């Protein structure tokens, strides 16, 4: 079976049911090249090795090449010892197929052994087996690409020299000591846009860069780097990554955002802290890149992290304690308001009635009314930095809204309501964090201490400064920050007109403009109530 100079060079190589036990381990001649045309037993013609139960031993330093456009390797029944015992290098130009249900092609590949995929047409790693492929070292050097049709694990180096590895629904797992070699790029990376993941096993804190990207019309490299700084790692613990080259389908994604999102999952890792970096390409940017922040959009609620690095085209998120779906979007912060109790709607025990439209509650269950929330410049109060109309206010006096994450200074928070007095925080509130909490439940929280005290010792925003708005009565006043006779006259005239419904003159929100409303306005006029602002 030996050719010139000890090279193995048969014309037909067919291994069946232990008929051959072939050992390639010649210390005098470490480079052995096979050029193997093959006829399959089914009558189909191909090139390569069709192994139906034989065992091939490729010893340390040996170099076996199955080349040509059809240079395939295929395992079939694998009766007892049919497989490859690999210590050296197997260079393959064709497909790598395992149709054996219970075992891998490689029998415990030795550290340092290499399988190199070096074809010039697309190569597929697959077969009917459910056993993942295992490699010590895997090299991809095929500009036409590789299709991973069965899950695989690399325990040493995955060398990405040339070509795209499309994992589809399969998982490509990197072992505990696995590394990425070569120069990953848009022409040498893993396409992870299906349900399959690129996974990395961890047994302790450490770092790994997932060399992932997409080929959705144009190959784009968008790797993810994770650095675990702490955590508890169970046996077999891993983190997995895949991605989508599109905007995440959510109404929140608007204005400025990325046409890309990454899914990160983990198994067997608890109590961890992790820093993440997501690289994107400039073509992913919609709108203004400098307005984009790294956000975790799933699971809810949305969590906002760092602003995009517009030089590196990179998103970062530090101190992660859980994973999910990440993308870039217009950054928002959360403003949570508490103890916003309106005198006109107040009942008792820190609760308000729902404003009525004459036929029942005007708003959904649990909503008392809507308010407007303004942020004012800390130096010049007259300058409104941000305004959010129609914010639902709960019957217990809570309201939540979002503001642009670019607002990171200190601002006065002002509450406006259709028939209440404008009320402002006692001092400018810092918006340095991602979530801002502010109470209006005590005079110390409000500029000038401008709150009414209820009979059950709750502080309330004064009623009576009636705004112009939708009403049958034509002489609606302009909201001027003062509870005066103009407001009282308007409410009284609306009462005489028999007005009812969701109207500014219905101060107590019962759906009817009556003398109770006029009396509340008149009382606050006598008290000299007006808006006190910086």
Describe this structure in words.
- With 534 residues, this protein is mainly β.
- The protein has 3 domains: 1-150; 186-330, no CATH class; 333-526, Immunoglobulin-like, CATH 2.60.40.
- The protein is 4% helix and 43% strand.
- The strands form 7 sheets. The protein has a 16-stranded mixed β-sheet that branches. Strands 13, 16, 18, 21, 22, 25, 26, 27, 28, 29, 30 and 31 form a 12-stranded mixed β-sheet that branches. Strands 35, 36, 38, 39 and 40 form a 5-stranded antiparallel β-sheet that branches.
- It is elongated and about 100 Å long.
- It starts with 13 loop residues before the first strand and ends in an 8-residue tail after the last helix.
- Residues 1-46 have low confidence and may be disordered.
Q: What is the secondary structure topology, with strand pairs?
A:
Blueprint: E1 14-16, E2 21-24, E3 37-39, E4 45-52, E5 55-58, E6 63-66, E7 71-75, E8 83-86, E9 89-92, E10 96-98, E11 114-117, E12 123-126, E13 133-135, E14 137-141, E15 146-148, E16 152-154, E17 157-166, E18 172-174, E19 179-182, E20 188-191, E21 198-201, E22 207-210, E23 212-215, E24 219-221, E25 224-244, E26 257-279, E27 285-286, E28 292-298, E29 303-307, E30 314-320, E31 325-330, E32 332-338, E33 346-348, E34 351-352, E35 367-377, E36 384-394, E37 399-404, E38 410-416, E39 423-424, E40 429-430, E41 435-439, E42 452-453, E43 459-460, H1 485-496, H2 515-526
Parallel strand pairs: 1-4, 2-5, 4-7, 5-8, 6-9, 7-10, 9-11, 10-12, 11-14, 12-15, 13-16, 14-17, 15-17, 16-18, 17-19, 17-20, 18-21, 20-23, 32-41
Antiparallel strand pairs: 3-4, 21-25, 22-25, 23-24, 25-26, 26-27, 26-30, 26-31, 28-29, 28-31, 32-37, 33-34, 35-36, 35-38, 38-39, 38-40, 42-43
């Amino acid at each position: 079976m030996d050719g010139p100079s000890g090279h193995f060079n048969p014309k037909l190589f067919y291994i069946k049911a232990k008929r051959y036990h072939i050992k390639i381990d010649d210390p005098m001649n470490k480079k052995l090249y096979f050029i193997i045309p093959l006829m399959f037993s089914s009558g189909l013609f191909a090139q390569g090795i069709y192994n139906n139960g034989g065992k091939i031993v490729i010893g340390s330093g040996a170099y076996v090449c199955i080349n040509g456009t059809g240079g395939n390797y295929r395992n079939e029944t694998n009766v007892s010892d049919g497989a490859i015992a690999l210590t050296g290098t197997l260079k393959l130009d064709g497909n790598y197929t395992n149709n054996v249900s219970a075992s891998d092609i490689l029998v415990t590949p030795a550290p340092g052994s290499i399988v190199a995929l070096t074809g010039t047409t697309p190569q597929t790693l697959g077969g009917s087996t459910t056993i993942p492929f295992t490699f010590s070292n895997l090299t991809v050097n095929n500009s036409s690409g590789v299709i991973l049709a069965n899950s695989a694990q690399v325990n040493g180096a995955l060398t990405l020299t040339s070509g795209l590895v499309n994992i589809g629904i399969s998982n490509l797992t990197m072992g505990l000591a696995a590394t990425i070699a070569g120069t990953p790029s848009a022409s040498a990376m893993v396409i992870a846009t299906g349900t399959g993941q690129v996974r990395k096993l961890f047994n302790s804190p450490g770092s790994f860069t997932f060399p992932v990207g997409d080929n959705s019309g144009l190959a784009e490299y968008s790797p993810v780097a994770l650095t675990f700084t702490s955590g508890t790692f169970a046996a077999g613990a891993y983190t997995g990554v895949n991605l989508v080259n599109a905007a995440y389908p959510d109404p929140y994604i608007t204005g400025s955002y990325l046409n890309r999102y990454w899914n990160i999952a983990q198994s067997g890792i608890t109590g961890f802290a992790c820093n993440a970096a997501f690289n994107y390409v400039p073509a992913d940017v919609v709108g203004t890149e400098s307005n984009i922040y790294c956000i975790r959009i799933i699971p809810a609620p949305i969590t906002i992290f760092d602003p995009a690095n517009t030089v590196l085209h990179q998103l970062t998120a530090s101190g992660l304690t859980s994973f999910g779906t990440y993308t870039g979007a217009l950054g928002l912060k959360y403003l949570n308001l508490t103890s916003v109790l309106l005198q006109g709607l107040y009942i008792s025990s820190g609760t308000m009635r729902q404003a009525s439209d004459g036929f029942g509650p005007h708003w959904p269950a649990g909503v008392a009314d809507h308010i407007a929330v303004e942020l004012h410049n800390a130096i010049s109060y007259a300058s409104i930095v941000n305004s959010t109309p129609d914010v639902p206010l709960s019957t217990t006096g809570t309201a939540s809204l979002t503001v642009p994450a670019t607002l990171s200074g200190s601002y006065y928070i002002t509450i406006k309501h259709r028939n209440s007095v404008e009320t402002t925080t006692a001092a400018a509130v810092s918006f340095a964090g991602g979530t801002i909490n502010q109470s209006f439940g005590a005079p110390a929280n409000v500029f000038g201490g401008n709150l009414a005290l209820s009979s059950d010792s709750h502080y309330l925003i004064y009623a009576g400064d009636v705004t112009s708005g939708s009403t049958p009565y034509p002489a609606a006043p302009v909201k001027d920050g003062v509870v005066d006779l103009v407001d009282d006259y308007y409410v009284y005239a609306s009462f005489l007109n028999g007005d009812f419904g969701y109207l500014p003159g219905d101060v107590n929100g019962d759906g009817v403009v009556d003398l109770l409303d006029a009396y509340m306005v008149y009382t606050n006029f006598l008290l000299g109530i007006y808006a006190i602002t910086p």
